[in-house]
Design brief:
Blueprint: E1 5-13, H1 18-29, E2 34-38, E3 41-44, E4 55-64, H2 68-81, E5 96-102, E6 107-108, E7 113-114, H3 123-133, H4 145-150, E8 158-162, H5 190-195
Antiparallel strand pairs: 1-4, 1-5, 2-4, 3-4, 3-8, 6-7
Amino acid sequence: MRATASVLLGLGANVGNREANLRWALGRLAECGQVGPVSALYETEPEGVPGQPPYLNAATRFLTDLGPPAVLEFIALVERLLGRRPGPVQAPRPIDIDILLFDDLVLDTPALTIPHPRLHLRRFVLQPLVDIAAERPHPLLGQTMRELLDALPDAAWVRPYRRQWYPMGRDVTLGGSQAPEPDTPPERSHETERDHPPTH
């Protein structure tokens, strides 16, 4: 039997009801492992395609008996269920889930690289990670997540959005297993997004 692994995941969304998409993804992840702690939500500057809406980003620890390929496969399924389709790497998306660290594993295959190759370069990844794993060292660089964050230049903006948002201890599926509507247009305000979760 495989030992339980401690996996750090980064999540982001900038299409549709961003917060509801992230909640739903965490609910699906909880079906094959233990989710938590979960970071605060941060609104972040998107990379790549100009003119796209800002992201909401978060990070979580995920305890699972699955190996890296199985975790990657399950993540891809969750993304598809939320409406993500193949497209440009930095295009807008309803959900994006990345494996950042997997215990202290170092892996480099055509399908998966662990640690995530751009983990140490991205403020929108490191800021949430520091909430839940500030002292966890990078397996290759040796620096902690906090040290990597402190070393970044102040280039891309990352601002706090909501600290208490993941409904620990109650139904994380928002009333059912059906995903939020994938083609919902981006919300017009934070008030709309926060106060009106998707209906099913």
